[in-house]
Design brief:
The protein has 5 helices and no strands. By secondary structure, the protein is an all-alpha fold. The radius of gyration is 10 Å and the shape is globular.
Amino acid sequence: MSVGENIRHTREQMGLTQVYVAEQAGVTQAMLCQIERGTKNPSLQLGAEIAKILNCSLESLLASDNK
């Protein structure tokens, strides 16, 4: 899976909305949507912030073999 797919999968498993995660990360919901769809890539700083919100490691979001 891509970074965006990993973010979406983890977010959905936690029952969190795009709006909530985006607000906590300091980005727009549209930006988070683009990241999850794979049309934009998050910076390392934003990726780390999203990982913190999702209570997971940045490495797990970057891993291409997550399921």
